[in-house]
Amino acid sequence: MFRKLSLLAAGLILSASALAAGPQYTLGVKGVACPYCAFGVEKRLNKIDGVEDVVVDIGDSVVRVSMAEGTNLTDSKARKAVEEAGFTLHSFKQNDAEPIDGD
Amino acid sequence: MAIKYYRAQLIIAATFACLLSTAGSVQAAPNTFNTALPVAQGEFIWREQTVFRERSSDGQRNRDVSVQALISVLGYGVNSRLAIFGAAPYFFNRDLDVTTPGGRINRDTRGFGDITAFARYTAYKHDFTGGTFRIAPVAGVTAPTGDHHDRDRFGRLPRTLQTGDGAWDGFGALVTTYQTL
Q1: 20 to 30 A from B70, CA-CA: which of B6, B31, B110, B161?
Q2: Of the candidates B161, B122, B152, which has an alpha carbon nearest to the alpha carbon of residue B25?
Q3: A24/B contact by beta carbon, under 8 A
Q4: What is the ipTM of this complex?
Q5: Longest CA–CA separation in chain A, Å
Q6: What residue in B sits closest to A42 (Cα-Cα)?
Q7: Which fold has domain A22-101?
Q8: Cβ separation of B128 and A31 shorter than 8 Å?
Q9: Where are the domains of chain A?
């Protein structure tokens, strides 16, 4: 009984956090070719208000950014952060939205 | 951060250095700082490089030179193109074994070497998916912070054994880096 209740509580917590998650973005970044480069991109993006998580996928040259609920990431903020890291933003897309190609 | 995908990287870095003065031996910074890859704006990078160097020469004097050092390098990104660096070598041992008319002797020393400060500006960059090509001039100075008057019971140590060269040295270089995943 206790186990079932624990599972139910965990499920509710997980589904609540999933519903509360903010928007997610996928950035195409050119020039990132090493983990050391990726750290710079991650650090600059993490300085933007509302950014909760940054995942740099070097192999695919994309950066996935998760925002806090009620916040959003703009193309100009993302571009500025990527350029401050020394690289080039070439695409910006809010997941489940049309991509904005910078080329 | 999670780096989900990482493949071996290829770094081709060519450095054309033009010493502005007659500097002694130049102590290299960690290799990753000899590239034109950026340091993110407002961020620091701290690197350590250990150096173990053994050198022998045959002949009458049969010299054996041994060096163990740790080079600390701090880099800071002023902006996305300009980065400044400082490098401080510490020699745990600079050791010379040599045969003299009086027999085989050992001479050694230790301590901080000459500190180097330099700036690097990315003059050209071409970023592409999974790689980058950059050209960055570098300029800096080496300060005579190392001891160049060190002595032992045989007298003043040879110049090559001192931890410093006793002079302010300036240098300039052009670094090109082509890096892909």
Answers
A1: B6
A2: B161
A3: no
A4: 0.71
A5: 58
A6: B1
A7: Alpha-Beta Plaits (3.30.70)
A8: yes
A9: 22-101
Neighbouring residues of B181: CB distance < 8 A, sequence distance ≥ 6: A33, A58, A59, B7, B8, B9, B130, B131
Rg of chain A on CA atoms, in Å: 16
CA distance A39 to A60: 16
Instruction: Outline where DSSP puts E strands in B6-130.
Output: 10-19, 44-56, 64-77, 82-100, 103-112, 115-121, 124-128
pTM for the model: 0.74
Q: Hey, what are A59's tokens? A: 């192999």
Residue contact A86–B81, C-beta within 8 A:
yes
Question: Would you give the distance in Å from CA A89 to the centre of its chain?
Answer: 14
Which tokens hold the place of B69? 């050092």
CA nearest to B129 within chain A: A30
Q: What is the DSSP letter of A62?
A: E
- The DSSP bridge partners found for residue B15 are B175
How far apart, in whole angstroms, are the C-alpha atoms of residue A3 and residue A9?
10
Residue-level pLDDT, tens digit, chain B, 181 residues: 333 333 323 333 333 333 333 333 444 554 456 788 888 899 998 888 898 989 888 777 788 889 999 999 999 999 989 999 999 999 998 989 888 888 888 888 899 999 999 999 999 999 998 899 999 999 999 999 988 888 888 888 888 888 888 899 999 999 999 988 8
